Every structure is written in structure tokens, then in C-alpha cells.
Amino acid sequence: MTGSKDEEGSAVGVATATNGKNQQWKIIYVDESKDQIKGLNKDFGFHVNRPFYMVSALPMNRVIECIGNSHLQIKRWTKGRVAQQFVFDSKSKTIGSHYWKGRAIDIPNNGKNRDLRYTTTNSRWW
């Protein structure tokens, strides 16, 4: 998140790696099933098309949420809010919203921008 602040509505962005809590996230699958391994993409470590939350390691444990169809912010977890759920697409190798289908997390300006946005899937890796 921008500015390393654990504040509701803070923008999610890219920064130089510091390994601080503000740059650490857990992946928690929506169904929390421990025995489901079908669909695991071993190269990327994600279950294919299985919804998950991206949870901050900061004290408030906020999650990333898609605001509108292009902005990412940290928000308090809300049970059942699909805009806070993401899926891994094995075909495009991207992380997309479970709500905004056909869109994926992107780093603008050929990966040189500090902000993250949500845009039409382009399958490019920076």
C-alpha cells in the first residue's frame, strides 16, 4: 500500500522491496478447504480459479479490494464481498478479480509505475 500506512482506503502500489510488514501478504482461499489440491498450479503456487483474499500482514489484516473496475485499495474484510476476492487464471498467468471478470492486476507504464491498477488482461510480466 502506498506510504506504508495501515489505513482504510489506502491505495495499493509498487515500491522497492524492504521485506516490511507493509509488503507482506497472505493468500487465504475463500472456502478454506485444507484437502482440496485439484487445480494447483505448482509453477505459481496458486489454485486455478479458486477464490482467495490477499491479506495484509499489518496489524489490521486488511484485504485488497477492487474499487470500481480499475482501482485497488486496502479495506476491512467483509464476509461475502466478491470485490475482495481474487482468482489465479492459469491461461493468462494473471491474478484477476472474482467480481470483475476479464480484468487483471497490472503495473502501468510497462511495469515502471508505482501504482497498481485493474485493467483488461494483457498477460505481460514485468
Question: How would you concisely characterize the structure shown here?
Answer:
The protein is 3% helix and 32% strand. It has 126 residues and is mainly β.
Note down, in words, how this protein is organized.
By secondary structure, this protein is mainly beta. 3% of the residues lie in helices and 32% in strands. It is built from one helix and ten strands; from the N terminus they run E-E-E-E-E-E-E-E-E-H-E. Strands 1-4 form a two-stranded antiparallel sheet. A two-stranded antiparallel sheet has the order 2-3. The chain has a two-stranded antiparallel sheet with strand order 5-6.
**Helix and strand element order:** EEEEEEEEEHE
Instruction: Summarize the amount of helix as a percent range.
Output: under 10%
What is the domain total for the residues? 1
Tally of separate helices: 1
Q: Keyphrases for this structure?
A:
mainly beta, 3% helix, 10 strands, two-stranded antiparallel ribbon, Trefoil (Acidic Fibroblast Growth Factor, subunit A), 126 residues, two-stranded antiparallel sheet
Q: Topology, pairings included?
A:
Blueprint: E1 25-29, E2 40-41, E3 46-47, E4 52-56, E5 63-67, E6 71-75, E7 86-89, E8 94-97, E9 103-106, H1 108-111, E10 117-120
